[in-house]
Amino acid sequence: DLQNALERYKLRSFDDIELLFKSSPIKLNLGGESEKSRLIPTDKTNFTKIISMTTYKDMVRDHLTKTATPISHSALQEIYTSAENILHETGHHLSKDEYLFLEKSLKSRSIPTPKLLIKDHKPPNGNGKYPTCLVILTTNFNANFSKLSYSTLKALLNKNRINYSGRTIQQALDLKRTLETLNICRDNTTIISLDIENMYPSIKYGLVKKAINHFTSSFTPDEKAMIEVCCQLIKFGMGSTLLCFKDHYYEYNGGGIN
Length: 258
Fold this sequence. Notes:
The chain is an alpha+beta fold. It has helices at 2-8, 14-22, 53-67, 73-90, 96-108, 143-159, 172-180, 205-215, 221-239, and strands at residues 26-29, 36-41, 48-52, 68-70, 115-118, 132-135, 241-245, 248-252. The chain has nine helices and eight strands. Strands 1-2-3 form a three-stranded antiparallel β-sheet. A hairpin with a 6-residue loop joins strand 2 (36-41) and strand 3 (48-52).
């Protein structure tokens, strides 16, 4: 039947996955108002699964209860006003295009809805259901403060030929090739594998600032002044990760898998 066919359907390419992320999960009506369902992508297996609308809402709300704090409209307005103030205070350091980029982002007042993923590559829970996780989109109106600052910092580091990614794993294949050159064998080595559940919302600004100071200690006074502006924008951008779900607003605190 249709439901079983959709359960078996495998996405053909990464572009299909991107399309699924960019749009809301597909709504299905398989037999009346009480049977409305959602088509939800899986995390790593490139499949989709159908769950009832009620189950979908319960899963997302369960995540939000554990990992986010409800936020009022007045608190949202305060964050928006703070964003306007920071833009005006730092505007003279920005180019015209940079200023317009942040201004357009603010005027959008965008607050995204988190996306639910089913982790069917992991063992089912005690209730027989697979674990799930939320994809937190960094598309809210204040996120571009950090994005713009990142681009500026990267440009300054590259200009000064600073190797800031020497210990960064670019991809799994790169790690595999590096390990193969070390002549590692099971008789003399212990390998530990980590499964990172969440990252960006859990990173503290203090650690970011410490890393930036370490790599930019030899920069010129003018460059350091620009870096301070970048740090100010990053701090604000990291200060609140805003979400919206079913006409309610939340501030995300970081979380993992249910």
